[in-house]
Design brief:
By secondary structure, this protein is of the alpha/beta class. It folds into three domains: 3-251, Aminohydrolase, N-terminal nucleophile (Ntn) domain (Glutamine Phosphoribosylpyrophosphate, subunit 1, domain 1, 4-Layer Sandwich); 264-456, Glucose-6-phosphate isomerase like protein, domain 1 (Rossmann fold); 459-602, Rossmann fold (3-Layer(aba) Sandwich), CATH 3.40.50. Helices cover 35% and strands 24% of the residues. The protein has 19 helices and 28 strands. The strands form five sheets. Strands 6-3-2-4-1-11-10-12-16 form a nine-stranded antiparallel beta sheet. β8 and β9 form a beta hairpin. 57% of the residues are buried. The mean pLDDT is 93. Bound molecules: fructose -6-phosphate. Fructose -6-phosphate (F6R) is lined by residues 311-314, 358-360, 363, 366, 410-411, 493, 497, 613-614.
Length: 617
């Protein structure tokens, strides 16, 4: 949801801002803009609609803008349609036209998040003579900062603090003041933003990969904290304006981890990283055959119920986890969509553990669900990929997935790492419950996953051929039972979100209760069928759709060759304990979504309307 960057130092700011924004484009790409300052001269604001390349061309890769201090933004529209006038940066003064050009305004800022009470604030400001040129909530914040700055004349920290107390909502803000030519002010509440420093230079970004080529020393800003950034130095303040001490953190991954490494798209690179990610996540918690989690044994031992709460693919990982945990450990599990959980008035079991799952650690609904669970007195464990993210910081216990930076908007490797965390949690609970005595056979089975994923990846040309053949279709159905059904949810999402083909995942046995009427001649049905006990039943459901004209592609375990008599196309995964099959069946489904999108000529890494980190409700 929008990417923010800032730079102040001794180099020209514009090229640095553009490069940093290019690493954040996955967060939003409806429009982009930069504001650059050259000492006391008026601030130059340039904005462009569409992808970042349009902005870059407008300022010749940054060469036409002079100045060593600046801020930038790539937008995912919430209030106000994508347009140049609504693009950021926004300015406190009245401006005509699109808002690009030289501005004399006192305050210039970029914002990520949503200001809920912007209408009420806008009315107050209008009564005080302010006029608005855009339709964004962000312009309201900029003007409110300006209002307090002029009214109390107590400097930027005071003006921003007064503003933060008045606004309701979420924000990460990067602000420049006319009177402080080489400084940038940053504030956050429930939207990510980090600060980095290197020799005489300072950087701001929504996410670490944006500034990795300049520094690996970063500071995480807490909620309702502010930072004042000058070349090579940064100071933090609380809401009272008192200075707060903070230590920088060394980022544990390198810039190369955030590059494409010769792959055409980040998504394909990340699909290929899955063997490593699975191995790294496994080895981060399994040492010498023992599972060591941050969640204490006595918390896990005494639970009667597990609530898994997440959004999107993370929710799908939780769905797989539900089957595996219930089967292995016998603990009842409810998997809840965070956006529903937070408003449901359900009675929660007091002896429950809440597990939230999130790659970014910033998803607004998941964060709100975590807070609600804590308010109700339940312990919360978070399965998170981004170190130091809001969810990681607020949870009682953290289980970090070790997927590294995930850049493609559609998740692949983080989902695979989340599955591993679900299996580990299941095995740990099963040991503590005495439903199993020995984890070794299950852990050795998990050790085989990386090489089995590699085997599937070697066959990717076959999926590519299949995808090219079906790239024209309008609808697809993903069917399965049990764990295969949970895995099919992720397969279906992968296809629809990047190829824009309508697809649905359905519990295979449920089709005949209505949805089967959608099956027509040549409708594509992907049947996932890896569970021995359910094999015949799922197969019958697939045959039911085939006899109504469907074309069936099946994904099954190697050795189940009889399936070929009943389906049109088969993909075999290497044999694996059925409990862990989702880690293998998902691979051909990810490839299918990817190749379908490529065959349709779509922007795989930046699907329309989506953003990587959903920090709004
Ligand atoms: C789909 C996808 C999304 C995310 C969801 C939750 O490919 O990536 O569905 O899984 O937005 O995001 P996180 O895991 O960051 O909370």
């Amino acid at each position: 949801m929008c990417g923010i960057v800032g730079f102040t130092g001794h180099h020209q700011a514009a090229p640095i801002l553009l490069e940093a924004l290019s690493k954040l484009e996955y967060r939003g790409y409806d429009s982009a803009g930069v504001a650059v300052r050259d000492g006391e001269k008026p601030t130059e604001v340039v904005k462009a609609t569409g992808k970042l390349i349009n902005l870059s061309q407008k300022i010749d890769g940054g060469r036409t803008l002079h100045g060593c201090c600046g801020i930038g933004h790539t937008r995912w529209a919430t209030h106000g349609e994508p347009s140049e006038v609504n693009a950021h940066p926004h300015v406190s003064g009245n401006c005509s036209g699109t808002g690009s050009g030289q501005v004399e305004s006192e305050v210039v800022a970029v914002h990520n998040g949503i200001i809920e009470n912007y209408q009420e604030l806008s009315e107050k400001l209008q009564k005080n003579g302010y006029r608005f040129y855009s339709r964004t909530d962000s312009e309201v914040v900029v003007k409110l900062i300006d209002y307090y700055y002029r009214k109390y004349k107590m400097g930027p920290i005071d003006a921003i603090n007064r503003t933060l107390v008045r606004v309701r909502g979420t924000y990460a803000l990067c602000v420049m003041f006319k009177d402080y030519p080489d400084e940038i002010y940053v504030a956050r509440k429930d939207a990510p933003i980090i600060v980095g420093t290197a020799e005489g230079e300072s950087y701001v970004a929504s996410d670490v990969p944006a500034i990795l080529s300049y520094t690996r020393k970063v500071y995480y800003i807490d909620n309702l904290e502010l930072a004042r950034i000058a070349p090579g130095e940064v100071h933090f303040y609380d809401l009272n304006g008192d200075e707060v001490e903070k230590e920088p953190v060394d980022v544990p991954f390198s810039e190369e981890a955030a590059r494409k490494d010769g792959f055409e798209h980040f998504m394909m690179k990340e699909i290929h990283e899955q063997p490593k990610v699975v191995r790294d996540t496994l080895h981060s918690v399994v040492k010498d055959g023992k599972i060591a989690l941050e969640i204490p044994d006595d918390v896990l031992e005494n639970i009667e119920q597990l609530y898994i709460v997440a959004c999107g693919s993370a929710y799908h990982a939780g769905m797989v986890g539900q089957y595996v945990i219930e089967d292995l450990a016998g603990v009842p599990v409810r998997v809840e969509l965070a956006s529903e959980f937070r408003y449901r008035k359900m009675k929660l079991n007091k002896k429950a553990l809440v597990v939230v799952i999130s790659q970014s650690g910033e998803t607004a609904d998941t964060l709100a669900a975590l807070r609600l669970a804590k308010e109700k007195g339940l312990p919360v464990a978070a399965i998170v990929n981004v170190v130091g993210s809001s969810i990681a910081r607020e949870a009682d216990y953290v289980f970090y997935t070790v997927a590294g930076p995930e850049i493609a908007v559609a998740t692949t490797k983080a989902y695979s790492a989340q599955l591993i965390s679900m299996y580990i949690l299941a095995i740990k609970l099963a040991l503590l419950n005495h439903s199993i005595d020995d984890a070794a056979p299950l852990l050795s089975e998990l050790e085989t996953l990386p090489s089995k994923i590699e085997e599937i990846l070697k066959e990717k040309e076959r999926i590519q051929w299949f995808a090219a053949k079906f790239a024209h279709i309008r609808d697809a159905f993903f069917l399965g039972r049990g764990i295969d059904y949970a895995a099919s949810m992720e397969g279906s999402l992968k296809m629809k979100e990047i190829s824009y083909i309508h697809s649905e995942s359905y519990a295979a046995g449920e089709m005949k209760h209505g949805t089967i009427s959608l099956i027509e001649d040549q409708t594509l049905v992907i049947g996932i069928n890896t569970q021995k006990e359910l094999f015949e039943k799922t197969l019958s459901n697939l045959v039911e759709t085939r006899s109504r004209g469907a074309y069936i592609a099946a994904i099954t375990q190697s050795g189940c060759y009889s399936i070929e008599d009943n389906v049109n196309f088969t993909v075999y995964i290497p044999r694996i304990n059925e409990l862990f099959s989702a880690s293998l069946t998902v691979i051909p489904m990810q490839l299918l979504g990817y190749y379908m999108a490529v065959a349709r000529g779509l922007d795989v890494d930046k699907p329309r309307n989506l953003a990587k980190s959903v920090t709004v409700e």
